[in-house]
Amino acid sequence: STAEALLSPLRSFGNPLQTPLVFWQGCMQRCPTLASLALELLSIPTATVTAASLLATRGASPFQKPDPIPILSHLDKPEKLDRNLLLRFNRNFIHKAY
To answer: Could you give the number of structural domains in the chain?
Structure first.
């Protein structure tokens, strides 16, 4: 039945071997908007260091004066750098079934 088909991926959510990423990939055809949002949220890093701060300065020593890297000035939206890098990186791991 239709209800059974919609509930089947939810029943597998309790599987300890299934990651949330795999679960939401399986839901991509049934609820693409929600699954896309979940996949985007799962790509948020747990680290506190942003890509912008890593790319903003360079130097071999903390005592050395930082030398700015011009890459950030050439980006369209530098405030979305972390999000875009993670989505681009994780795109390789997400199977698109549609």
So the answer is: 2
